[in-house]
Amino acid sequence: MAKRSAGKIIGAGLIGAAAGAIAGVLFAPHSGKETRRAIGKGIKKAERSVAKEVKVISKSAIKPFKKNKKRSK
Questions:
Q1: How far is CA 67 from each of CA 56, 64, 72, rounded to the nearest angstrom?
Q2: Residue 54 sits in which domain range?
Q3: 0.90 cut: is pTM over it?
Q4: Which residue from 7, 39, 60, 61 has the highest number of Cβ atoms inside 10 Å of its Cβ?
């Protein structure tokens, strides 16, 4: 149960961060070129963050299967 709650909290945090970033960009007093550059940097940063989280989640998802495989031998 705690893992599901943590997942919901992380998901809500990611959604909130994305909404905040979008609002910040929309209300930023920069030119279009500067805004597009900032968006590009933000997307690259988000991609790295998501890739890192995917690695962590996939490792934790594989652990139970490895344990069961060892037990079955």
A1: 17, 5, 9
A2: 2-72
A3: no
A4: 39
